[in-house]
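## Example pair
The file below holds two records. Each record gives the amino-acid sequence first, followed by its structure token line.
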Amino acid sequence: MTEDTTVRLRAATAGDAEGVTRVFLASRAAALPGLLRVHSDEDTLAWITQVLLPGTTTWVAEGEPGEVLGFASLDGDVLDQLYLRPDSLRRGIGTLLLERVKEASRGKLSLYTFQRNSAARAFYERHGFVAVAYDDGSRNEEKEPDVLYRWAAAG
């Protein structure tokens, strides 16, 4: 993995909703083929526009101005979302986003990811997250078994 120096992180704005939605949908489709789709693309855009962006602290990773390569959302002590465009993997962008979230956190974070998302699980484990609980999928809309991870700053 090499760090991409052409990437800029910035606070997300309402104008990023479509780009964030595209990244969210493309990332999930690529990482989790066969994942139950419980919302239409239009409903996903509405959720990102009306709930995610106004209700969390969200950053986008930009290549060219306006080109959303990835995003991360922090909701209290929860890393609520972290997604990258499939063609933006292994460029250090996820690490940049995660470092920004850690800096903005109160020194501890938790997150859920699907158990079968081995790439995401390996990424979080490389960055100091520890699996603390496994669920059968009854807690999420997709009914997909997931895992709860926690991280705490050293010291």
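Second record, same layout:
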Amino acid sequence: MANENVKLLSMWASPFCMRVKVALAEKDIAYEEILEADLMNGKSELLLKSNPVHKQVPVLLHDDKPIAESFNIITYIDEVWPSKSFFPTDAYEKSRARFWANYIDRKVHPAGRAIWSSPTEEVEAAKKEFLDILMYLDGTLGDKDFFNGDTFGFVDILLIGLTSWFPAYEKYGDFKIEDHYPKLAAWITRSWARETVSGSLTSPEKITNFVVMMRKMFGLE
């Protein structure tokens, strides 16, 4: 069987690891999660061997062959286990899914990080940038249940993995996503209702506590 030897090098707070866990759950793939204990103070030999270029999680080990970078990993998962594809069948719609997934990868997490990691005088600008980024995602979601219409797919997986961090952004940016983008907020609630999502993502409360600790470490508290 193709999924007899699947391992995931992971870290509990990483949104990029969380999205891979959602993808694996959506495909009903059994795997062993190998947690990196403390990436700031040292990385395991297995991680350094498996991802010598970036030295980062997540890394998927399939039959002991490493696949790095979450976007790449999720694409790999969809190709190796093709039933219940994450992508639409139409070539144009598939290209749109890749476009928005790339948009999410490049913009959402860095903008959110800037909110909680910036000095007070820079937070308002960081919040505006983050909300501007979400504006386009809210627009492309529109009135659909998911970004692919009725089906929870690639774009949903890429974005939902980041949402454990959203309450921390809201806390330090002093805003609520639902006040600006109620459709996107409803999508978050709808997606979290899926067992594959809720069982794969770290609780927002735990992430927010982690952010509090990080801010103290950076001298921001």
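Notes on the second record: The radius of gyration is 17 Å. The mean pLDDT is 94.
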